[in-house]
Design brief:
Length: about 230
């Protein structure tokens, strides 16, 4: 058995009970150090822990796949939810195993942000730049989302200088592409663990620096009017 689970945005209290049960019953727990640390209190002493980083993830996942094929119950833990900025890692797990694997969703940093900042999914688009490959289509999509008067929840890319696309770069790119400097912008850091929040405009964001563990909300300039029934007169 092998299952990939979303470990939530940082605090173990945000982990679904079913996922906690899977970890308690596992023979092998694998994942990036910071994510495994989130679920560490649930890992049984008898379980093998397979830690990895960007550089050795392929080799370590091959080791996990061998344990899975040998009959061990394996759990691979993902940051937040698997379905937002987690699919490339899922692809690596499945490539190592040689078949599709079961997944269990987790609570995403995007969901916690939506809750803290009180935005509705229906009127919001989710975009991540924290992925390998060509970011151009995602950048273009973000411009279209804002032109369409929707909110955008954006995961920046914190990698090396050549690829880094952090809130300041995102803001500068949007301004160059005709998005209003007045667009209300928020950056939230370390959600569920010592949170920090910044509120300003897109123009102000272009001069700000944030940590790797940050997520951005760019609000529409024209929020939708309520579409529920009119309130009854008193
Ligand atoms: C590879 S993405 C994974 C996102 C994850 N799958 C999710 O659903 O939240 C990692 C990035 O997500 C953002 N992120 C994850 N957890 C966060 C948190 N607790 N607070 C703020 N940003 C977070 C950061 O930008 C981080 O570098």
């Amino acid at each position: 058995m092998i299952i990939c689970i979303g470990a939530g945005p940082g605090d173990i209290g945000y982990l679904p009970q079913r996922s906690a049960g899977l970890i308690r019953d596992a023979d092998v727990i694998a994942g990036f150090d910071a994510v495994v640390n989130v679920v560490r209190p649930l890992i049984p002493a008898r379980a093998e822990v397979v830690l990895m980083g960007y550089k050795d993830q392929v080799a370590q996942l091959e080791h996990v796949a061998r344990l899975h094929h040998a009959g061990k119950r394996c759990v691979v833990v993902f940051m937040g939810d698997i379905h937002f900025s987690g699919f490339q890692y899922l692809e690596r797990v499945e490539r190592a195993c040689g078949h599709p694997v079961e997944t269990m969703p987790g609570l995403s940093s995007a969901q916690v942000l939506a809750s803290r900042a009180r935005v509705c999914f229906d009127e919001t688009t989710f975009i991540t730049f924290h992925r390998r490959g060509d970011l151009t289509p995602f950048k273009r999509h973000l411009v279209h989302v804002l032109e369409d008067q929707r909110n955008a929840i954006v995961i920046p890319c914190p990698w090396d200088a050549a690829r880094s696309f952090m809130p300041c770069h995102i803001a500068a790119y949007l301004l160059e592409n005709g998005i209003s400097p007045a667009q209300p912008t928020e950056v939230w850091e370390n959600l569920t663990r010592g949170e920090a929040e910044w509120h300003g405009t897109l123009a102000e964001c272009a001069d700000k620096t944030f940590s790797d563990m940050s997520i951005m909300l760019i609000r529409t300039l024209q929020p939708m009017a309520s579409q529920i029934e009119p309130a009854e007169a008193a």
